[in-house]
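Work package 3, deliverable 3.1, input record:
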Amino acid sequence: MTVPISYYLVLAAVLFSIGVASFLIKRNIITIFMSIELMLNAVNLTFVAFAHMWHQITGQIFVFFVMVVAAAEAAVGLAIIIAIFRTRRTLNVDQVNLLKN
Amino acid sequence: MPASYLWLIPLLPFAGFLINGTLGRRLPRPLVSAVALVPTFLSACLWIWLWFTMRAPGAPESIQSVATLFGNSWISVSGFHADFAFTVDHLTLIMLGVVTCVGFLIHLYSVGYMAHEEGYWRFFAYLNLFMFFMLVLVLSANFLLLFVGWEGVGLASYLLIGFYFKKDSAANAGKKAFIVNRIGDFGFLLAMFLLIAHFGTLDFATIFSSVSQHPEWQGGFLTAIALLLVVGATGKSAQIPLYVWLPDAMEGPTPVSALIHAATMVTAGIYMVSRAHVIFDRSPYALGVVAIIGAATAIFAACIGMVQHDIKRVLAYSTVSQLGYMFLACGVGAYTAGIFHLLTHAFFKALLFLAAGSVIHALSGEQDMRNMGGLRKRIPVTFWTMTMGVFAIAGIPPLAGFFSKDEILFRAFVSPNPIGKLLWLVGVVTAGMTSFYMFRLWFKTFFGEMRFDEHHAAQHAHDAGHDSGQAHDGHGVHESPLVMTLPLMILALLSIVGGWVGVPEFLGGHNEIGAFLDPVFSVGTVQTTAVVSHGTEFGLAAFSVLIALIGLFIAYVLYYKRPGTAAAFAQRFPALYRLVDNKFYVDEIYQGVIVTPLLVISRLILGGLIDGGIVNGSGFAAGASARGLGSLARRIQSGNIRSYAGWLALGAAAVIAVMIFGHSLWLH
């Protein structure tokens, strides 16, 4: 028995929504970063699901691209976060507002 | 001469203007002079060539030349058509001669007069610009091109009156001239509109032949056109009520006064009236107005001229007065006499101004005759040449002024105009006054004891920056250089012989100028030559000479024999003297009745209410509402990334909602 496609989509939507919500709500920059990863992976899940459904390899290839980009982003992003933490001694995004105004 | 060469006559000075106007600042003075003088000289040569072409046996009465730009005419819109068209007939020929020859002499004189002035190149550039426009004015074959020249000479006049623009009075005089002329131009413009409405064209030949073919047209719209043209002419030719700018125009350098404000530009009004004589001849009413304006201006300006102390102002009022004579001549239908006087006046008035300039030059910028006197021996060339000018304008035979003035007076006397005799009387009285104030000037300047303080003046001239002649050589009173006296001598000669082209028959002449201009002025006119015996003519002439001699005698007594008498006379009638001395308060009246109310209305209603309230108000309102909207919209740009993300999410949600539910809701 195969799991219907809608299950995957609902799961992906739930994960994506959690990602959006925590991105909007959380103040800790690492948590925000993780929520971005969560949104990316929710999308990945839909890609894989559709690829399986249509027996098309394209969707899975996209997933690899997304993972590579996400990895690069994580590397750069974490480096920035560490640099910010070293100078500012905080990870609260509301306090990182030197360029505002 | 090929007809297309006509275009060279104005374009040569224009080339001089372009070169001096753009590069003149960097050129050495001799080169600037050459650039200005050579084209003017060539124009004069072209005129001589043209003269011989037109006077050759079998030559046509007029030459036409139409220029096209890349195959197009100048203006061609919905039935109205105007060309760059030049025409030369005998009237134009005379005007061209005056403008090019007198113009060249004054250019030559200016080389000496302006030698030590700042802005030498600017002066000659303007002078050439003036020549260009004046030549366009007299050459044009339609009213529109004439108007271009008309406005152009006004511009050049403005620029040259305000040549010493650092002086407030000069700048104001320039503006005054321009604005007063603008009033006249308004009338001229309206006249052109009427001409277009009735004839559909502004071409001289078409309009005049059309009028000639309709002898039933009398008065009516022709009177309206003629009167509006007169308004234009009174502005340019400084007649009542628009004469006020000319005396003030003396703020310009003296050669400018000679060229523009005596010999050429101010005669444009007379030229225009003569040119349009076919129209004027159909309107006795308009002609009467011209005659009355002319006579009134002549005597009025002569009155003021009698008490002026500034040597140039005397000449300025004298110019206004003489222009009045020319107007009077036109008004009694004696266009030939008017043009004749224009010609002789160009000679002797240019001479008088240039000689006055030479006196001013000699006295390091002194213009007040009360500080002159006894200059006869010190500046002999100036004295003798100016003497010729004075005798010429006073109407002493056989000098130029006598013949032309006498012709005008005679024509006024025999004219069918019901007040012809009165006009004649006014003219004769004016002739006496002319003689008086010119000899007054002569005696005060050249005779008696020297009242000029050389040391003081030399000191004064250095910091005054007065009109020219800053005591450059430090020798006090000195005769002018040859470059200035040569034009004086030539003009003096012309002032003597210039009238001999119009010696009337009763004096054994043939009135060549009358025959010369006859082809122009006989068009469309029914000549009614009054038959008057030569005896009457001779009597009238003798009478006006007698009047002139009386003027001379009074001036001799008052200003030479018993110098104190004039002042005593002035003290006897203080109110009268003050009235005349203040030029009948015309400037003050204009100021009070026209200028001040205009300014008040402009400031309060136009400036305060309309400009300040409505125009500015709407501008401010538009600005304020934009700011208000902006400050509302600015709130969205909070700089908070999470709020942006929130809006993004909301937007995405909205898009998804439309994609999902939109189908069922409204897309089908």
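Residues 24 and 121 of chain B are 5 Å apart (CA to CA).
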